[in-house]
């Protein structure tokens, strides 16, 4: 997907309270900010990618790859490969925090404080959750600042100053406290009332909560971080809405989000359900993308909707959640039998067990990274192919892959892509686009219904 609005396992952890930084916004790009504009923003077709009887997919792909400046390629490779280590450091850092809370009995003391404040169990749970969220927010701040602020600025991908960035993280914390608190209260209520089958009912409640969260994001969560406005430029909206109507998407408007206040990245999404359905582009895509590129990107996003990827993702992650809760049921009992007395945790229904729950879920997420990435990468490839067929803009699609290559490694090895990539690599996306073009050359050849001009911008 060309944006981060799809549901995934990280979203589940977010709803459970771990993802405290949902988005960033609220500052103007600094002067002279970054290398994003090194990439061409007008779709021009290389000679090797021009329609001809001798059209070569490999030559056309290599021609597009050659358009990426060497310095930009080196920078994006370094950025993305550094993310591999961050997966490990994020995991280990979270493990250390969880073990501190358990072994130093901070978790038990937070529970005791909640019990001194009130005798009402649900309120005790919520108070503990507030304490836990605030403490882990502070303990996690050093790595969060490096990963989300310092590093993003080092690679020229962020546009916020520290104050607005920190305020966005604080807003994410407050959302996590409210939504995570509701879920935690529900789950511990289930554990206390259904001690033998809690993991089944807990998985069901969490899955429903995940679907609810996916539904409210575009209308209620996104505007907390960014200004979302209706896009009124018919030159942009008319082709998009026509594409939507042609593919059975009930969209009446196109929305714009001011993402340039936080990042240089281009993105778009079709998100929500029913009355919350929205087709959204960020202003970076509108500013830097050619018409062909915008149509290709939106064709991809519409593919997620038409192919029912959101319901399928919810089903897939519901299975993941059930398996995770079954693992929790066993591993919590085993862990508490061995160390529960040392940690002063009375049982699974004791809210002081939260750090252990988070630790165990983190282990599941870390180990399952290749599986989860493969699921998402597969649906992204399906949306790619739908978008190519719907928009008929292979050259615009290739240009979009180049823009995404500003922060994604373009040509990884197969094992590297399998483990770390939740989207197809840029090289494979361009190769797919050129394969599609070769099989549809009649659409782009001179005299073929005027299609030549619509597929690739200017012809050098």
Total strand segments: 4
pLDDT under 50 segments (min length 5)? 3-40, 447-460
Estimate the mean pLDDT confidence.
88
Number of domains: 1
Strands of the biggest beta sheet: in what spatial order? Answer: 1-2-4-3
**Beta-strand level of the residues, as a percent range?**
under 5%
Structural class estimated from helices and strands: mainly alpha
Distance between the termini: 30 Å
Order of helices and strands: HHHHHHHHEHEEEHHHHHHHHH
Outline: elongated
SS field, number of helical segments: 18
Helix content: 55-70%
The major β-sheet equals:
4 strands, mixed
Radius of gyration: 24 Å
Quick summary:
With 460 residues, the protein is mostly helical. 65% of the residues lie in helices and 3% in strands.
Kindly describe this structure.
The two termini are 30 Å apart. The protein has helices at residues 9-15, 57-65, 70-103, 106-117, 121-139, 141-154, 162-193, 198-225, 234-246, 283-288, 291-306, 309-343, 354-367, 369-391, 394-404, 414-420, 426-439, 452-456; strands at 228-230, 254-257, 268-271, 278-282. Strand 3 and strand 4 form a beta hairpin. Helix 11 crosses helix 15. It has one domain (9-21, 45-456). The chain is 65% helix and 3% strand. By secondary structure, the chain is mostly helical. It is elongated, with a radius of gyration of 24 Å. Strands 1-2-4-3 form a four-stranded mixed β-sheet.
